[in-house]
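Onboarding guide, step 5: your first structure request.
Type a short instruction followed by the sequence, for example:

Predict the 3D structure of this protein.
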Amino acid sequence: MAASVGVKQELIVRAALTLLDEVGLEGLTMRRLATGMADAIFGAVSLPRNPKGKAWDERLKAVIRAIRRAFLAHRDGARVFAGTYVPTDNVLRVVEAMMALMQEAGASPKLSSDGAFSLVYYVLGFTMEEQGLNPRTGGPLDLANRQAKFANLAAMKYPSIHAALHRMFDNNLDDRFEAGLDLLISGLKARIDTRS
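The system replies with structure tokens like these:
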């Protein structure tokens, strides 16, 4: 683990020194460093090959899963990327792959853009929450205590929440991620189908 931390520190220092050479000390900001790190995170997104016979939606899900893996590969990876709006080849390469798959299925450029943003926002939000539960990043929260508090309050006033309490505190995050991804992709498919 210590070697891994040293390598990550070395990469950050190298990125900071590269930025220092480009913009000088006055131009070196945490935002610029975060932008470089965000670009590097998306640079690690490995786009799945286009296997024959795979439907567009399955290929799109594979891209989204690759983004999630890239965020999870780094402590606070999703938080580093959030809000950077990095216009680099790494980011555009991934977004282009997402939009091309949706357009291949019949989505308009507008719908594919809205879909790509929505899917990236979903991955960001989910992964930030997921990383918040990770012991390496300050978690886990005392989920048993929180679940008990939710259960007590929900039992008194919020029956819909109470009925779903087990799912809300399900710690199978892969399953929960896939369920949300399926909902989003189903919505995209329905929108595309109504345009045909």
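Each response can be followed by summary notes, for example: DSSP finds ten helices and no strands in the chain.
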